[in-house]
Amino acid sequence: MTTAAAACSLLLLQLCGCVAVAAALPMKGGGGGEGAYLRYKDPKQPLSTRIDDLLRRMTLAEKIGQMSQIERENATANVVNKYLIGSVLSGGGSVPAKNAPPEAWVKMVNGMQSGALSTRLGIPIIYGIDAVHGHGNVYKATIFPHNIGLGCTRDPELAQRIGAAVALEVRATGIPYVFAPCVAVCRDPRWGRCYESFSEHPGVVRNMTSIISGFQGEIPASGGRPGAPYVAGQRNVAACSKHYVGDGGTTKGLNEGNTVASFHELMAVHMPPYYNAVIRGVSTVMVSFSSWNGVKMHANHFLVTDHLKNRLRFRGFIISDWQGLDRITTPDHADYLLSIKLGILAGIDMVMIPYTYTEFIDDLTLLVQNGTIPMSRIDDAVRRILRVKFTMGLFENPYADTSLVGELGKQEHRDLAREAVRKSLVLLKNGKPGAKPMLPLPKKLSYGGSVLVAGSHADDLGSQCGGWTITWQGLTGNNLTAGTTILDGILRAVAPGTNVVYSKNPDADFVQQNKPLFDYAIVVVGEPPYAETFGDNLNLTIPAPGPDIIQNVCGSIRCVVVLVSGRPLVVEPFIHIIDALVAAWLPGTEGQGVSDVLFGDYGFTGKLSRTWFRSVDQLPMNVGDAHYDPLFPFGFGLQTQPSTY
To answer: How many C-beta atoms surround the C-beta of residue 337 within 10 A?
Structure first.
């Protein structure tokens, strides 16, 4: 090769090298043209690099869009695209169609996602839904016991398995984000959300935050940055610890009320579950409607920013509750500009608007443009939202995995829910003084023997599921979803030839005329379904006709009373005539778990996660209080051994 040829070859190599280096560098400009290399879309890039690269490309409108969460009924692909919406939710009962199958949910969510992906930067939406005891909005989903029952199991490993099962059922509908778990420490059962709390004791609630690792996956032993969100993959969902903080401590249990407590008490009672949630890599935290010593939590910079973000080093995003900013003022929405200012400056990152999104976007834009809210606060919010979206793989897998549709309501999950029911039951009484234990019940009776099953809740799937099931408030009856009632379980449990008579509301005459026929009775009564403020209750008596049924039946026939409720109720007036008393809480769709234990296939193992008071005049009364005089103390629960037949 001549000297000239060698020089020419060297020049060509240098030019090729320059071209190769140039091709590997990100393109300058906005979103980048077709084929342009964008660092934020490269999963091989470090997380911080991707966030920084995307954030620097975003306009104010795109940033505020990411901070906006709107309701499903508004969220067409066009709306998501036009307003650059970052998140969509289904409120309680908000569904694509009645009894919609998972395929319909997937189609809906994917349609909205297409609107997001066709924006300039293609930032995917994160779709969120309440899944507080299973995928409750969805027809034929597995409904697990509400948290009050799970707290009675004292079984964090069970809670984690439940979280993993719920994650799969939620993913079956194309949704990657749940507003769960509720880690409230309910200190007063008059609160209408007490059943959403695992316990009155912060230690029990802390232990049950294991459900977060079920939802999101277990953080690897190698770990990551403390406080950073973690979602293992496409079979997991982002979780949300709520409601920050003190929601379970309001005066008289008033929903959205005021928690009067010293800083020390707030830290000792209500804050501990959040320590564990942050350690477990929870992706989001929802702020409470309630106030602390008169200051609305949605406007509390000290607790939201100084404590949660700065002291606890929480690095996910903080979301408001439903119209949470509106409720900063009285009346709601009276001064929306002020509410937005207070909420965003307090440290809220994403706002569950959910309807007046154009007003929110316009007002927040104005507050930034006039300098009331600094761009640094907006950037902090968007950085956190993007961190969660990148971490959970939304940019790589924005659309639903249709192979998961079969996970909804699968038998394996129903078996798990049935196990949870068995372990959640608490046996409060088993036999009158001097008499043999009533439980377990015999499955086989002597020739001609019969069992009376009585009460409104024995054959009512909706009542045993409670609130947040198909609709926000829940429904009564057996036509809401798929499942097994307690009566169904009893009929399957007894031996062939055993006669079971069901009477929803037997009067005294019926009982007196027929009592010689019955070997024993099972009375199932309790509360109707409710959620949130609709469940606030200052008297906590067993709703009618429950007391009359107990008096009529248990006054004449050996009976076990199964109480289906979201909290302890006043039972002392009846305890002397009841042979056995079982707290079944709100067991969900798998009522056969109740009969499994009543008839001795499994023993009773549950322990009260709450103090069972004698009278509401004692409330609030929690374990450790100086005036502690319960009917059944925290941690109480009689045990039985499985029967051998």
So the answer is: 14
- Alpha-carbon distance of 556 to 568, in angstroms, equals 25
Q: How far apart are CA 465 and CA 585, in angstroms?
A: 9
Q: Which residue has the tokens 């490309």?
A: 57
Distance set, CA 205 to CA 71, 227, 273, 504 (Å)? 30, 19, 6, 36
> Of the candidates 371, 227, 366, which has an alpha carbon nearest to the alpha carbon of residue 285?
227
Residue 92: strand, helix, or coil: coil
Residues forming beta bridges with residue 570, ordered by sequence position: 541
Give the integer Cα–Cα distance in Å for 386 and 316.
9
Angle, in degrees to the nearest 10, between helices 357-369 and 336-346: 70
Whole-number CA gyration radius for the chain: 28
Q: Each residue of 632-641: pLDDT tens digit?
A: 999 999 999 9
Q: Are 138 and 95 in contact (CB under 8 A)?
A: yes
- The domain ranges of the chain are 38-407, 425-618
d(CA 32, CA 539): 63
Examine the residue annotation and report whether 130 is marked as an active-site residue of this protein.
Answer: no
Full 3-state SS string of 176-226 = CEECCCECCECCCCCCCCHHHCCECCHHHHHHHCHHHHHHHCCCCCCCCCC
DSSP 471: B
Structure tokens at 60: 């104010």
The tokens of 412 are what?
Answer: 């394996």
Q: Which of 321, 419, 527, 536 is catalytic?
A: 321
| pLDDT of amino acid 223 | 74
List the beta bridge partners of residue 454. Answer: 503, 523
Contact 114, 163 (CB under 8 A): no
- Angle at which helices 375-391 and 336-346 cross, to 10°: 60
- Tell me the sheet residues that pair with 594: none
Q: Which of 472, 473, 421, 413 is nearest to 586 (CA)?
A: 421
What is this structure's pTM? Answer: 0.95
CA distances in angstroms from 3 to 11, 17, 301, 424, listed in the order given: 12, 21, 73, 87
Number of H helices, E strands in the chain: 21, 17
Neighbouring residues of 107: CB distance < 8 A, sequence distance ≥ 6: 96
Task: Say which CATH superfamily domain 38-407 falls into.
Answer: Glycoside hydrolase, family 3, N-terminal domain (3.20.20.300)
pLDDT tens, position by position, 221-270: 887 788 999 999 999 999 999 999 999 999 999 999 999 999 999 999 99
- The catalytically annotated residue of 407, 532, 536, 596 is 532
What is the amino acid identity at position 590?
E
Per the CB < 8 A criterion, the answer to whether 151 and 205 are in contact is yes
Half-sphere exposure of 471 (CA within 13 A, CB side): 11
Residue 393 in tokens: 């793989």
| 3-class DSSP assignment, residue 397 | coil
Pair 71, 95: CB distance under 8 Å: no
Report pLDDT for 290: 98
- What fold characterizes domain 425-618? Rossmann fold (3.40.50)
- Return d(Cα 310, Cα 358) in angstroms, integer: 31
Active-site residue flag, 188: no
258-259, strands of its sheet edge to edge: 258-259, 291-292, 295-296
Helices 375-391 & 47-57 angle (0-180, nearest 10): 130
